[in-house]
Design brief:
globular; Aspartate Aminotransferase, domain 1; alpha/beta
Length: 396
């Protein structure tokens, strides 16, 4: 079927929950994808930070094929070998002590919310239940994670929202202090706000949050769903600040494209859940955790974080050159290969223009062009993306 035919068929049968662009992607290889009309696109969206090793990387394909022949799924009523192996890799390469697996970032954050409430009731005060998150944050689309998300536009029409959340200003420690009460049990923060406009947390802000949590016996939760797994030039984003959270949530890039989420915790928080407290039917099943082991092993063995740091410096240099050339670019922002261009105008027309020229990017917060290419991207591919972007910006 052609793009046009697939688009019309999709409109007929699929709920209208996404502002989809008018192409249907049918295959991919490396940093490129191809639509139903066989047009090639350089993919700087990567499933929104999911396809870390690019599309159809051999190590991911081999791991999935091998696992499919052995065991696709079994219940978490039994021990699962690749799940254990993936947990070991995550724990031994982080400051965390235990892992729980689920299917998505939203589920990982749901688990963190439940864990923080139970921890507070058992370790501190049964009256503690409220979580402080940040304005312009994004933590998921379930009712609880949507409520934790500090964006009223996303919460519209879904009242009544669950109680137990309040919002402080990002990178403003005094604002967070003002929100702490006897009911507070945790602080939830993204080291980089991706959906909020690619805004990086100040290391001193994160250090201040750690001090506040220690002082008030609160859990510090880092949402690394989008920024974990080498995206920022470190395996985990917390490593940039040296601040160790109590809980980390992961998803997106963890299994090279297979659907997975993870909740990591340390210390007493890691021992909070007991049988019956939390579960996931498909979470951490053999298929996705095999893909996760292959993906994370490749990242570590190939020093993918180091490659990301180099490509980030190269791409930011090219973006700053564009900023000098196009006056309506206000700022280059981001970390690693989660980068953004803040514009003085809406970004959607530029996204559409790049699409016609064979480059996939997206826009967040209305005026921020977001770039999240596969982490295996090369200088040559960055040059090509910048050239296409330059043409589209010139048209504006």
């Amino acid at each position: 079927m052609t793009n046009a035919q697939l688009v019309e068929k999709g409109k007929k049968y699929i709920m209208n929950t996404y502002g989809r662009l008018p192409i249907a992607l049918v295959r991919g290889k490396g940093c490129y994808v191809y639509d139903a009309d066989d047009k090639e696109y350089l993919d700087f969206v990567a499933g929104i930070a999911v396809n870390a090793l690019g599309h159809c990387h051999p190590v991911v394909i081999e791991a999935i094929q091998k696992q499919v022949e052995n065991l696709i799924h079994c219940s978490n009523l039994y021990w699962i070998e690749p799940q254990i192996d993936l947990a070991q890799l995550l724990i031994e390469n982080s400051c965390m002590d235990k892992a729980f697996f689920c299917n998505s970032g939203a589920e990982a954050n749901e688990g963190a919310i439940k864990l923080s409430r139970k921890y507070a009731k058992e370790q501190a005060n049964p009256q503690k239940f409220e979580i402080i998150s940040m304005q312009n944050s994004f933590h998921g689309r379930t009712l609880a994670t949507l409520t934790a998300t500090g964006q009223k536009k996303l919460q519209k029409n879904f009242d009544p929202l669950p109680q137990g959340f309040c919002y402080a200003d990002f990178n403003d420690l005094e604002s967070v202090k003002s929100k702490i009460t006897e009911s507070t049990c945790a602080i939830l923060v993204e080291p980089v706000q991706g959906e909020g406009g690619v805004v990086v947390a100040d290391p001193q802000f994160l250090a201040g949050l750690r001090q506040l949590c220690d002082r008030h016996d609160l859990l510090l939760i880092f949402d690394e769903v989008q920024v974990g797994m080498c995206r920022t030039g470190k395996l985990f984003a917390y490593e940039h600040s040296g601040v160790q959270p109590d809980v980390i949530t992961l998803a997106k890039a963890l299994a090279g494209g297979a659907p997975i989420g993870a909740l990591l915790a340390r210390g007493k928080a890691a021992e909070t859940f007991a049988p019956g407290d939390h579960a996931s039917t498909f979470g951490g099943n053999p298929l996705v955790t095999s893909a996760g082991v292959a993906t994370l092993s490749y990242m570590l063995e190939q020093d993918l974080a180091g490659h990301v740091a180099k490509m980030s410096a190269y791409m930011q240099e090219k973006m700053r050159a564009l900023m000098k050339k196009h006056a309506f670019i206000k700022e280059v922002r981001g970390q690693g290969l989660l980068l953004g261009l803040l514009l003085e105008k809406e970004g959607a027309p530029i996204v559409a223009s790049c699409l016609t020229k064979g480059l996939l990017i997206n826009c967040t917060a209305g005026t921020v062009l977001r770039f999240v290419p596969p982490l295996v991207v090369t200088e040559k591919e960055i040059d090509k993306a910048i050239a296409i972007l330059d043409e589209s910006l010139a048209e504006e």
